[in-house]
Amino acid sequence: MNLTAEPIHTATACAHCGDDCPAEPIRLRGKAFCCQGCKAVYELLDASNLCQYYALDEHPGQKIQPVELPGRFDYLDADSVQAQLLSFRSAELARLTLHLPQMHCASCIYLLERLYQLNPGVTDSRVNFLRKEISLSYRPADTSLKEVVKLLAALGYEPQITLAELGAQPNHGNRRIYYQLGLAGFCFGNVMLLAFPDYLSFTDELAAKFGHFFGYLSLLLALPVLLYGAQGFYRSAWAGLRQRTINLDFPISLGLTSLFSVSTYEVLSHSGAGYFDSFTGLVFFMLIGKWVQQRTYDALRFDRDFTSYFPVAVTLLTAEGEKSVSVKDLQVGQRIRVRNQEVIPADAMLMRGAGQIDYSFVTGESVPVAKVAGEVVYAGGRQVGEAVELEVVREVSQGYLTQLWNNPAFQKADAQTLETYANRVGRYFVAATLLIAAGAILYWYPRDEQMMWRAFTSVLVIACPCALSLATPFALGSALAVFGRHKFFLKNSGVAETLGRATTIVFDKTGTLTDVQRSAVEYCGPVLTEREQQAVAAVVAQSTHPLSQRLAQQLPSAALPVANFVEVPGQGLRGVVGGVTVKVGSAAFVGIDTAEPSAAGADPSLAPAQGVNLAQSAGAPEATLAASATTDKLQSRVYVSLADDLQGCFVFRNVYRQQLGPVLADLGRRYRLAVLSGDNDTEQDRLRQLFGPAAELRFRQTPQQKLDYVAELKQRGETVIMVGDGLNDAGALQQADAGVALTDTLTNFSPACDAILDAGSFGRLSTFLAFTRDCLQVVLATFVLSFVYNGLGLGLAVQGKFTPIVSAILMPISSLSVMVFATLLVRYAAHRRHL
Amino acid sequence: MEIIFGLITISLCVAVLFLLAFVWAVRTQQYDDTYTPAVRMLFEDDETQQRAEQ
Questions:
Q1: What is the Cα–Cα distance from A687 to A666, expressed in whole angstroms?
Q2: Half-sphere exposure in the Cβ direction for A659 (13 Å, CA)
């Protein structure tokens, strides 16, 4: 029997978070709330007259997750932690910046900047909305860091305090580009005015009188542009030379140098006015190109590693009692306590308590895994349920997962793996320019020595590939904006080029191909009556376990009262509905005698041999209950008993993303496809069907093996895109030419990658890639356009006719037309692809 | 015509003032966050309005 019932929607929305309220909402002064947490926040704001919060935006509130436990933020009292978190500290005042990923609307700004009304110890709080950061100061005499963080958490804005955030200072962005742009713009404008008399014949008298003064003044104004404005181009060219490559900035630097030297010579020797207006203009336009290229997504982090996810401190159990220590100081053999919602910082052995470990950030699988004492749990999991005691078996940096970061793939900082078209063209450009300059010398030397110098310097001057250097930033910059509108966020424009040139796409399975938000629930066993279904629904509605919540969505709800409700973590739920005891949970919990110890029938682990798999399709639930309970350990199932009488079980199967079929069909026509799965091979047939006969399917892959496979593909000359989602894909994402992290909630953690794709846009992946190919063609077309300008200039230059006035006309026209041409063509391409 | 020397010097000085104003704007974080101040401004208006009504 398939339960296809639609989730029941109640009419009332929670006054705080806007979620649907249960059938009988909690009421306060005529307002309905979905849970106690939301009501508590409302009361808090109401008491401080901050209810304008609700008027500014439709549903500003965050659903309050009941995670508060005593001691959860105790580590913030530790001096060592405070020393690292606070950017300023004195007896009277402390300052720090916190990252609040939940910030999402104008109301959030309103509330967060009025923290002083809620906690008088807070003196000032400022929000940077784009970066989702809050800078706040408080008086340590009146309040503490712990109190402030607790207040934020209580409001639903729990700050992200992780290893990586330690010592982070308020970010000032990159201001250098603004200073450079301002300076270059200022000098360009003024030099242009001073150069004006040179271009108009009726001002000859003026030029004769003031020419030298204007010349010296222009030189003075151009000097800071050379020394400060153009610094970036020289630096980049020098860095390229040291790596024995010639990038596009080399001919730019060459051109700028010759332009400046020729002009300086002309002014000092009183032989002309020089090209200072062209020089400052060139730098100004190219800086605009850089600025366009540099604009990125402030709120997204592309460089996160495991430290961004791991906690700062952990509770250490010593003979003297509990102690908060830094995770970095954790040693093998120490005993730690991990509470509800805390992350396990190191591979450890479970000593006491029922482990319910949520590995969703590691594997992409959202259903917690049950562990019992004596089992090893791996770092990166999040404990759900009661507090557990663990004994550390490996240091943080040596863990099963974290040692991935010792791989050399993580050492190369930001080096682009593919040579960009612009740099390749730049190299030929240098060679061609030098050849033509030499040709000009040879031609003019016997004829006219003065002409020879003029032609030679003109060729070097015109060789500055300004227009060429603007093509890529403007074309790919507007491509980035188009992608951003469709929730595909690229780290920089270089990534767009890499995506456009890719040949192979490698997918992770769980969480990437499968949709963790949805699952198909099938029921097997004797059919339940409507009344019985409602009874089960009423019980599971009481629990926050992911499987319970999914089940509650599927079953018809009638809001029956539940008495004597008990949730046994890792085991199941029990409650009395209408006089009947309802038990929902693992086989052992409801009373089937099997050897299987774990809850919900699932026993995935991170161990390479086993793999994590809850999404099995092979085991059609026709098999008898007893048989499936013993043979099919890897399936996610929940057993039900009514009045201690076993009824049947619900089988949860993860389903593939809705648009997966069409996307793969599209991609398969052009790219080589591969799947790397940490799971076992039960899905092989279905994947083969989806991916076609040519695709490579690999199962039971460890994070290291995934990385190695991508490295091997690259060695074969493939350009690889890796699409993954969890920390276990982090190595492969890093190793690939372009790593794309798929995420359901953008502000949540995603491993280090080159691009972040919102799961909702997964269906357009093939369109995105086709669009990047269009963009590369636009770049090439723009190259052709700028070559035309350079050719025109060269033609004049070798004849010695390249005067300052020609330069002053040609340079802005070429730069501006390239900017406009590239932007419009990309827009047109996007329009054609319906993006 | 010698006045031109003076005039150009003065005009340059005025232009430098604008450049300095720009540098000041960047230094005082006005280019760091181009979104939040626009929203913040609206709140404060609302508050004064409420006070005026009272």
A1: 16
A2: 12
Counting one residue from chain A and one from chain B, the pairs whose CB atoms sit within 8 A come to: 60
- Residue matched to tokens 């026509």: A669
What domains does chain A contain, in order, with CATH numbers? 74-165 (3.30.70.100), 176-297+418-467+776-803 (no CATH), 306-406 (2.70.150.10), 476-514+658-772 (3.40.50.1000), 515-655 (3.40.1110.10)
Q: How many CA atoms lie within 13 A of A823 on its CB side?
A: 13
- Give the side-chain half-sphere CA count within 13 A for A341: 11
Cβ-in-10-Å burial (0-12, 13-18, 19+) of A754 comes to buried
Give the three-class secondary structure for A815: helix
Q: A370 and A355 in contact (C-beta within 8 Å)? A: yes
End-to-end Cα, chain A, rounded Å: 41
pLDDT tens-digit readout, A161-189: 776 666 555 455 578 889 999 999 999 99
Token pair belonging to A234? 């020289």
Q: How many CB atoms are closer than 10 A to CB A189?
A: 15
Tell me the nearest-neighbour CA distance from B19 into chain A, angstroms: 7
Angle at A536 between CA A535 and CA A537, to 5 degrees: 90
Structure tokens at A542: 């009481």
- The listed range with the strongest mean pLDDT (A259-268, A408-417, A752-761, B27-36) is A259-268
Domain extents in chain B = 3-53
In the DSSP assignment, the letter for residue A26 is E
Two tokens, residue A455: 């032609």
Å from A488 to nearest chain B CA?
21
A335: tokens are 């005993």
Alpha carbon distance, N-terminus to C-terminus of chain B: 65
- Judging contacts by C-beta atoms under 8 Å, the chain A residues touching residue B32 are 128, 171-173, 175
In whole angstroms, give the CA distance from residue A257 to residue A463.
11
Closest Cβ–Cβ partner in A113, A127, A182 for B22? A182
C-beta separation of A752 from A733 below 8 A: yes
For A229-263, the pLDDT digits (tens) are 999 999 989 988 898 888 888 888 988 998 899 89
CA separation, residue A203 to residues A207, A212, A216, A801, A803 (Å): 6, 14, 18, 22, 18
Q: What number of CA atoms fall less than 13 Å from residue B33's CA on the CB side?
A: 22
Question: Please, are residues A507 and A609 in contact by the beta-carbon 8 Å criterion?
Answer: no
3-class DSSP assignment, residue A36: helix
Tell me the ipTM for this assembly. Answer: 0.86
The answer, for B7 touching chain A at a CB cutoff of 8 Å, is: no
Q: Which two tokens stand for residue A470?
A: 């603007």
